[in-house]
Amino acid sequence: MHDAGKDVPAIRNKPDLFGLTWAWNAFWELSTCRSIGMVAGPIPWTAVQAYADANGMCEGESYFLHEVIRHMDDLWLNQQNAKAKQSNQAKRRDGIGGRHRDGIGGRR
Q: Number of structural domains, the chain?
């Protein structure tokens, strides 16, 4: 983008996450372990512990992994819930969902 002559503050001021890529990778790997139903569930504690064990983490590293993943997961779940709520509100506004007079789908 700099080649195009535009200064992009978000790129110029991007945070340096060099030391945290392991946490990012762990989060997305562990995200495959969450239950999915009507909504996405949290990453199970057992999955985080299995990841720590498989990667030879000591007790302190394991504790830190649990804390980091739990915080990341809380943020992700809150974002997903907000998106779902917004989508449901749009569907209600647009008359999608609910029941038809004959009792099948749609709105009355």
A: 1
Residue 35, CA distances (Å) to 40, 41, 42 in order: 6, 5, 7
- Structural domain of residue 63, as residue ranges? 19-93
Exposed e or buried b per residue across 29-61, where buried means at least 16 C-beta atoms within 10 angstroms of its C-beta:
ebeeeeeeeeebeebeeebbeebbeeeebeeee
pLDDT tens-digit readout, 45-67: 999 999 999 999 999 999 999 99
Range with lowest mean pLDDT among 7-11, 38-42, 93-97, 99-103: 99-103
Chain CA centroid to CA 34, Å? 10
Residue 106 lies in a domain: no
